[in-house]
Amino acid sequence: MPNRTTRALCRTGPRNDSMKVISTEKSQVLATRLARALKTTIVDVNYSRFPDGEHYLRAGALDEETIIVGSVVDNDALVQLLLLIDACENSKNRLVLPYMAYARQDKRFHPGEPISSRAVAQVFSRGISDITTVNIHDKDVLRFFSVPTKNISVAREIGSYIKTLDLDNPLILSPDDGALAFAEQVGSVGRWDVDHLEKTRLSGVEVRMAPKQLCAKGRSVIIVDDIISTGGTIATAAGMLYTQGADNVYAACVHGVLTGGAYARLMASGIRDVICSDTVERACSKLSAADRIAHALNNP
Ligand code: R5P
Prior knowledge:
By secondary structure, the chain is of the alpha/beta class. It contains 8 helices and 16 strands. The strands form 3 sheets. The chain has a 7-stranded mixed sheet. Helix 1 links the parallel strand 2 (19-23) and strand 3. Ribose-5-phosphate (R5P) binds next to strand 13 and helix 6. Ribose-5-phosphate is lined by residues 175, 179, 225-233.
């Protein structure tokens, strides 16, 4: 028998007949908010492990339709999500994959490498009628799923949170030109200035990062990105922006993966605050993707 049990249970709002939400352990908070937004309930699940570390779970009573919520934040979450989908085999299942690890590995650079995002996408297409992702790193990855997909963005929610900081004339920066479109969506909320950082190699060892067109001097700067993983990109940029005279530098992202001491690294670099959504549940998850996901599910 499994030797360790945790529980996720929440019942809120008037019941939506025939649909329920269920989630992996690491997406309980977002799933609960989503259930509330969909005016339905969340299924009680017992999660545990066998003595050898294998995952076990047992889901409570399901309905005709199940919204399965699980961010693949690590390999354990990946396995738990696979088991959860299998446990729900007797209902119509719609998958919400708020964060998908392995999405950045979408090409084979060397012979013998897997296309990891394809491998993950293929396993999650089984037993599922459609998939909703949130700011997936590269929308091209969606082609690897064999069921209909919808990718939503929480750029506006990030922008709305930034508004609450009441900063005077902030500058929104993306770390590179690839993330500029996302930064522009965030910036449009407050009609703020938007630019991207540009790297200039000064010597074999020295690299300078500065806004391509605008000046950071005397301004509050918010660096926005889809993912903060090690925090290395933003920590380096923050140091340079302070050298260039920025007053305050903040970091905002959708997916706060924050691996290997990233939060501490960011704070040590002078970042005033780290802002992320609840696609990865962290203490610094200051905004929720739930309402936006509920809207997408209600409008397929
Ligand atoms: C990369 O393409 C992503 O958009 C992020 O910029 C990257 O994952 C950030 O990584 P890190 O926090 O490790 O610098």
